[in-house]
Amino acid sequence: MVALNEATGKPGMSPISVLLNLLWIIFGGLWMAAGWMSAALIMAITIIGMPWTRAAFNIGLYTLLPFGQRAVSRAEYGQHDLGTGPLGVLGNILWLILAGWWLALGHLITAIMLAITIVGIPFAWAHVKLAGLAPWPIGKMIVPA
After folding, report:
1. Which residues on neighbouring strands pair with residue 134, listed in sequence order?
2. Nearest of 113, 94, 96 to residue 104 by alpha carbon
3. Quick one: what percent of the chain has pLDDT higher than 90?
4. What are the angstrom distances between the C-alpha of 81 and each of 10, 26, 114?
5. 3-state DSSP percent of the chain in helix, strand and coil, to 5
6. Distance between CA 30 and CA 24 in Å, rounded?
7. 5: which DSSP letter?
């Protein structure tokens, strides 16, 4: 169930999602979001990396607050553009080589460390999902869960 913002009537985060996101930031989410933002910044500085900047920034924001949201393909929402076609596949392959593998590795290492404790298992699972997203961020959008 998605909570609605009383002022706007638009979807917002439920109190449980807010609590989980706060705990997420404390227990490892902040440093991985910083990794995504660093990748976005590095891509923005280089002319060659400009096509990946937006995707890395969007996934970085998602990595900062993953609970109550999910990543889906833009094609699922009828948005067919360069990122959802063959150029998006090529872009994702290049992203994997340039930055995706180390972001995925960071998420997996963090997930392993969190999975050691029972309390950390939900956060570990979120890191595993983000590790699956890390190699292929182009053509994705973040929507309320």
Report:
1. none
2. 96
3. 61
4. 26, 36, 37
5. 65, 10, 25
6. 8
7. P
Q: How far is CA 14 from CA 18, 27, 121, 126, in A?
A: 6, 20, 20, 17
Kindly tell me if the per-residue pLDDT of 2 is higher than 50: no
pLDDT tens sequence across 88-127? 889 899 999 988 999 999 999 999 999 999 989 999 999 9
* Cα–Cα distance measured from residue 88 to residue 111, given in angstroms and rounded to the nearest whole number: 28
Which of 74, 80, 89 minimizes the C-alpha distance to 143?
74
Distance CA 37, CA 25 (A): 15
Query: 2 — phi, psi (to 5°)?
Result: -100, 125
Per-residue CA distances from 72 to 9, 97, 124 (Å): 23, 22, 20
Question: What CA–CA distances, in Å, run from 87 to 74, 81, 83, 90?
Answer: 14, 9, 6, 5
Give tens-digit pLDDT for 72-90.
988 888 777 777 788 888 9
The residue to which tokens 């930055």 are assigned: 99
